[in-house]
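user: Please supply your own:

assistant:
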Amino acid sequence: MKVIKHSEQVLKTALISKNTQLVKLYENLESREKCLLNEAFQPDSVLFRPITLHSESDWISSHPEPTQDFEQFYNDPYRSRPTPRKSAIYVQPIGSFGDTKVSTEDYMKWLKDYCEAFYYGLSVKILEPVPVSHTGCAFRVNEYTCNLQIHAEDLLKYLKKKKPEDAFCIVGITMIDLYPRASWNFVFGQASLTEGQNHYIQKTV
């Protein structure tokens, strides 16, 4: 087992930029917003908790990626940016989320509130739930778990067709297992970020 914990200096190096545009944005933040950002540098902060890797098969261990600080992220030419005409996150529930309609509505309200807080400045719109049969997606029964699974690539195509004009992105969520191709056992989620299309499909647990 391995624990990844970054020092205050490492976090400041990664998060603080001398870029004049970013400095100006920071100066225009409200005092509460600045307080939240400063919280990130504290050793006991809840924003950047230590990450525990339980085995070599954990994602971080088995899929090493180059590091990226905030300025690199900000200047990435491929980063999707909201615009006044495309500033809404649409959430498409797929399949059932509980035994009653009330539980589904409660879950969607919680998800909407969370997304609007996390993606500050963007509106979040919950679309009417659709049954799996309406998506026209391929599916299978996993030979090991005997669980129903939906083909993730097909779901991305379905979401692309449903993406409204004012959408920054459209996110599909489901309680049903996903698989990206026949050789894979399952996948937690999948996204398409090319050609200006932002579609995500995520299995909730």
